[in-house]
Amino acid sequence: MEKLSTDAEFREEIAGDKLTIAVFKANWCKDCHFIDPFMPDVERRYEGRVRFVELDRDDLPDLCSELNILGIPSFIAFRSGKELIRFVSKLRKTREEIEQFIERALQVSDALSQS
Q1: Which of helix, strand or coil describes residue 114?
Q2: Residue 49's closest CA among 20, 23, 22?
Q3: pTM
Q4: What ranges do the domains of the chain cover?
Q5: Residue 85: C-alpha distances to residues 5, 29, 35, 100 (Å)
Q6: Which parts of the chain sit beneath pLDDT 50?
Q7: By the number of CB atoms within 10 A of the CB, which of 4, 8, 37, 105 ranks highest?
Q8: 93 Cβ contact partners less than 8 Å away, ≥ 6 residues apart
Q9: What are the angstrom distances between the C-alpha of 58 and each of 25, 29, 41, 85, 94?
């Protein structure tokens, strides 16, 4: 997962016509580290269909405030610079829940392609 460190990089990545999922994390977040072991497999499963980028919430406080990122890890799906859907909760996220979110994001993205 490519780690982005500036607001400009983030905006450039989400501007494209491809579905991009931004994962907002922080070094001190235990639930963020919980997903680290299985996320590379998840990325491989969706290779070619979804681009994943990672952002550290503490490095980009203004962007996170703008996007209303409160809980982490937060997953937000973007396409053509617009937010499609997000997966945010106070609870630890399982691989299954993350994959369900990705599938929903793909459905929303595909529906927009057809309209």
Answers
A1: helix
A2: 20
A3: 0.93
A4: 2-114
A5: 22, 23, 20, 12
A6: none
A7: 105
A8: 31, 34, 35, 73, 75, 87
A9: 8, 11, 26, 22, 23
- C-alpha–C-alpha distance, residues 3 and 65, integer Å: 19
The pLDDT of residue 44: 96
Residue 36 CA to residue 43 CA, distance in Å, equals: 11
β-bridge mates for residue 78, sequence order: 20, 83
Q: How far apart are CA 76 and CA 21, in angstroms?
A: 6
What pLDDT is attached to residue 88? 87
Backbone φ and ψ for 18, nearest 5 degrees, come out as -90, 145
pLDDT the model gives residue 115: 62
State the pLDDT at residue 70: 84
Q: What is the pLDDT of residues 55-83, one digit of tens each?
A: 999 999 999 999 999 889 999 999 999 99
Which tokens belong to 106? 């793909």
Query: What proportion of the chain, given as a percentage, has pLDDT over 70?
Result: 99
CATH number for the domain whose boundaries are 2-114: 3.40.30.10
